[in-house]
Automatic annotation (TrEMBL):
Entry annotated with the keyword Ribosomal protein: no
Spans through the membrane: 206-227, 247-271, 283-304, 332-350, 356-378
Protein name: Mechanosensitive ion channel family protein
Compartments where located: Membrane
Signal peptide: 1-21
Entry keyword set: Membrane, Plasmid, Signal, Transmembrane, Transmembrane helix
Residue ranges of domain Mechanosensitive ion channel MscS in the record: 381-446
Amino acid sequence: MIKTLLRFLVPLLLIAAPLAAQDKSGCDSSRWYCVSGLNTGLPQPSTLIYRETPRATIESLIAAAREDAWTEAAHLLDLSGIPEVQQLAAGTGLARQLETVISRKTVIDWDIILDRPDALDARASSDRAMAGEPRKSLLLWTLELDNRPVAIRLNRIKPEDGAAVWVFSRQTVGNIPALFARFGPGRFEKMLPDALKENAAFGFKWWEVLGLPLLLALSAGAGWLVWKGMGWAARKASHQVVTDTLLSIRGPASIGSATLVALAIGSYAFVFSGQISTVLPPLAWLGLAGSGLWLAINSVEAVLDRLTSSDETDLTQRQEDHKRTMATRLAAARRAFVVAAVLIGGGIFLSQSNIFQNLGFTILGTAGALTLILGFAARRVLGNIIASLQIALNQSAKIGDRIVYNDYLCHVERINFTYVQLRDWDGTRLIVPVEEFISTPFENWTMKEPKMLRIIKLKCAHNADVDALREAFDDIVGKLDKEELGDPDDAKVRVAGQDVFGKDVWFALPCADPNTSWDVACKAREMIIAAGNRIAEERNIDIFPEVRPAEAA
């Protein structure tokens, strides 16, 4: 019986011991970090410093910076990692450095810096992990330092002899010297006159007001020099391949040079304030990524243009079926590569979520918001791109195919991202959106088997001698170019219909090449009509009906 009681009592005692210790100490570790003392090496803070809420701490840092009260600002840091005798001297310098880093590399988003002692976000959606829960640590910003993210964080700390306060965390304080060395005033900025380092307006300094237009002008000048230089080199090149290559990479090289200059000056030579530095580097990186993708796409385009070059080959010829298929597949591969490159490049850029966080637009970094924005803005473009890939996959129309589209007799000349380029028989170009092209029925004379029967339809009189027309047609088939005709045994003459005006006689003309079949059919029609008139004159019979225009109408 005693053993049984002990089995129940021992676990209860083990559970109750921590609870008793917590009650005895009077510190609730779920609401704050419990410490024996906080910044004991500093004098008591003045009324300038308020640390009861996260927002009060940030406001106190801004107020201390305006008053140049850095000794007071040291109370906003957790200096527990610094010996007590050094806290006053070290805290003053660290507070100054932290304020410099925050003003240069961040934009304060007051919506995420809560004005509640428990930092509970009452507006958070229920699907967030900390919705409706008090917090004792709050992430404000994330900065890149030595290829790793460094957090600037506030912690709620309660000393044994005082109230709980919000201060910058011990880890953040430990990273301040490295952050200041990376994002503080650069060597060139230190050389500027003191007058240019004074505040101008909107949080900018005078050197920023004057330097930003100069930076943009230098970037544009660098891009213009690269553009002109590569254009000059292209004109002086002795080979057409070199000329084409230089011209194809001139655009991305110019954009890349301009953004590289802006990135180098804006990130290393001069460190601008937060309003500029949180926008300029992301845009510069976006320009570099875009120019790199553009360069890769142009390179692939140049290679594929060489592979699909048809300067000496007419892809419309019936014997070039393999090359037509290859050209269509390579064109599809080109489009697929461009789409993949854009998606991968955009994904890499957008994955840098700290960019949007420091800008205060975290929602723009979410995949759902971007999907909605891009899907709505580019739904037609994306639909046409997918449709163009669909054409390449199902081979319903290949480059060089002879088709009849909306009564236009034309060739498929190009299948682009958003439109199909058709060349009419008279040399004019017909531009059709891809979605409309695949949703409209059309005749493909080249698909599967190039041989075809061209039907020549003539209206003949009721008493017309069809046998005489059949003999004349056989004779005409024998006179036409054998290279343009199919099997002569497929030539047929049939009476396909009849009405009050006469009977419909169809002449089936076998053609070997859909590209020349229309011309051959026109020539044969002319010869059939001439033969019919000759038969009518020789035999004194009617071949074609005599109908007045009013009756025909």
